C-alpha cells in the first residue's frame, strides 16, 4: 500500500514538472524563438504559450520595442584632412525575429560597426566647416545607408543622431582664434557704423543749427532795419515838425534883426567845437563893414544899458526907491519890436 502511494506521488510530481516545462508566458512587446531538436520551430508571441518539454527549447527572447544604442566616439578624417571624434546614437527596432536571430550573429555589434564605417565615408566627403554645420544631412545619409543595410537582418533603423563632433585640441584652438578674430572684426564694423551714423547725425544737427542761426540773423536784421527805418522816419518827421515850428515861430514872433544877429554870434563858437573840425568858414561880411554890424553894435549897447539899469534897480531897492529904466536917446532903436 505504501509503495503504491509513493508511485502515485512520483507520477504526480513528474506530471507537474512536465506541465511547468510546457507552459511559457511571454511578456508584452517581446517574442521567444523556439527550437526543436536544435532547429528553428516557431516564434512565441506575447501571452500564454505551450511548448513540448524536453523537445522544444527557447533560443532567445527578443524585445520588439524601439531600442536606443549610444556608440562610443569614432575617429574620422574630413575632406580637408582634419581629424574629428564623432559620437553617434542609433534608434532601431527588430521587425523580424527569425532574421535578427539567424542572419546575423550579434545585430547590435553589426549595427555599430556599420554605423562607424558609414560615418567615416560621409564625413570623408565633407570639409570641417560642412561637418560642423550639416548635422541634419549627415543624419539623413547615415539613416538611409543603415536602414538599407540592416533590412535583411530584420532590423529597422528609424533615426541616427550625432551627439557630438569634437575636433582635436589644436583645431579647437585655431577655431577659437578665428571666432575671436571674427568677433573683433564684427565689433569694429559695428563701432565704425555707429561712428558713421553719429557723424551723420552730428553734421545734420550742425547744418540745421546753422540754417536756424542764419534765419534768426536774417529775421533780426530785418526787424532792426524796419526799426531803424521807422526811427529815421519818426526822426525826420520830428525834425520837419521842429523846422516847421521854428519857421512858424520866426514868422509869427516878429524878431528884430538885432536879436538874430546876437544869436548868430553866440552860435559861432559852437560851430568850431569838436576834434574833427580842422577848418571852419565864417561869412565874408563878418567885419565892421558888414551891413548888420551897426545894428549889432547898437543892440549890444542897449543890452549893456539894460544890465546897468538892472544893477541900479537892485541898489535902489536897498534904499527903498523904485528903479526906473534909463531913458533912450532920441533916434535910438528898441531891442525888441514890442517896445516900439
TrEMBL record:
Protein's cellular compartments: Membrane
Topological category with respect to the lipid bilayer: Single-pass membrane protein
InterPro entries, alphabetized: Band7/mec-2_domain (IPR050710), Band_7 (IPR001107), Band_7/SPFH_dom_sf (IPR036013), Band_7/stomatin-like_CS (IPR018080), Stomatin_HflK_fam (IPR001972)
Pfam families: Band_7
Highest rank taxon of the organism: Bacteria
Domain Band: 21-179
The entry's keywords: Membrane, Transmembrane, Transmembrane helix
Gene Ontology CC terms, in alphabetical order: plasma membrane; side of membrane
Keyword Protein biosynthesis listed: no
Spans traversing the lipid bilayer: none
Gene3D superfamilies found in the cross-reference section: Band 7 domain
Family, as annotated: Belongs to the band 7/mec-2 family.
Protein name listed in UniProt: SPFH domain-containing protein
